[in-house]
Amino acid sequence: xxxxxxxxxxxxxxxxxxxxxxxxxxxxxxxxxxxxxxxxxxxxxxxxxxxxxxxxxxxxxxxxxxxxxxxxxxxxxxxxxxxxxxxxxxxxxxxxxxxxxxxxxxxxxxxxxxxxxxxxxxxxxxxxxxxxxxxxxxxxxxxxxxxxxxxxxxxxxxxxxxxxxxxxxxxxxxxxxxxxxxxxxxxxxxxxxxxxxxxxxxxxxxxxxxxxxxxxxxxxxxxxxxxxxxxxxxxxxxxxxxxxxxxxxxxxxxxxxxxxxxxxxxxxxxxxxxxxxxxxxxxxxxxxxxxxxxxxxxxxxxxxxxxxxxxxxxxxxxxxxxxxxxxxxxxxxxxxxxxxxxxxxxxxxxxxxxxxxxxxxxxxxxxxxxxxxxxxxxxxxxxxxxxxxxxxxxxxxxxxxxxxxxxxxxxxxxxxxxxxxxxxxxxxxxxxxxxxxxxxxxxxxxx
Length: 447
What we know:
The chain has 12 helices and 18 strands. The protein is α+β, with helices and mostly antiparallel strands. The protein has 2 domains: 3-161, GAF domain (Beta-Lactamase, 2-Layer Sandwich); 219-445, Phosphatase 2c, domain 1 (4-Layer Sandwich), CATH 3.60.40.10. It has helices spanning 3-8, 11-20, 29-41, 80-86, 106-109, 143-185, 190-214, 268-285, 291-304, 387-390, 400-409, 416-430, and strands at 46-52, 56-63, 72-74, 90-92, 114-121, 127-135, 227-233, 242-252, 255-266, 314-322, 330-337, 343-345, 351-353, 371-376, 381-385, 393-394, 397-398, 439-445. A hairpin with a 3-residue loop joins strand 1 and strand 2. 38% of the residues lie in helices and 25% in strands.
């Protein structure tokens, strides 16, 4: 038995494959979107999300393969076996000449001449299979191709974890609802049932909070020449996953991507789109520095494999930030896809509203998107936020644009972390009652 088959038959890995509940299931938009995006960004005719058990490589998503082709191939005919064996990516420019793949039956049965794949993993780290792209002719995969594919493979792994978490959340909700119904029908056992209800509701709320946190970066990166800070407060109930998200990531040697977004609605579909949007922006930013092009690629991904009954959309503000070179300013290229206007807080205390609203994404094939260039000097800050800030209510009044601008103006001289915290606290002081929506604030400041 060769090493690849031995690794494929690892009991721990096979248990993770079974627990994933991916094998022999119907196609899902979340995986088709990511495979389609890989094909689009790498200009590859074929892309696959593959799950590997001890006998076969099974295609959860299959983009560009001939109609009617079987959705599985024997493991010995699969290039995925090499990724499962090593837990490392496999990049093949010419499959017939590469000693790792020469003679593999998949060259003829699948028409693979070039292939690139990264492992996709279970929440416990076990390799379940791959995200891969393939071409029918030899080609040289570029460093940028490899980086994009790695980012999208991370997105597939995150979606597998998200899928599992949503299943657990839905099960917790079902138990909570069943317990509540049981309590309503059995008043004489109300004390015991009330404890059961509280326990199941607490478990459900805890799962929802954990799921929401998984859609946000655990911490912001340290960027030379910039101060970054974010504040996030979930809706008070904590029982529904809402679609607010933000991210900061390196998009080139001296460029950083900054994103703030909001998916319409709440619950499982919103969570799925939130994860898709975050990773799609990351991958698209590796292909282009132009913010409007990044958002167009996100829009294409949302539309291409959207479910027929899903009318959700996303508002996004995306900035490509280039830190100071010498004594020069920080250069920002900004585009908004229907998102609330960012603020620029200048060192002299003035607050500018950057009004380039654009069109929300996921609705139309050709959204209106315009790039805006800004320069930030020492002491200046860019402030991004979601509608949980401006729509916070006290009676029939909202915190609104005026409240936000006023609270930002009060932060002159503060560090980025204090600035973000001050805005959050101003919103909380204004608000009466529960938070009906998530609140997110992100500050990028030049120290």
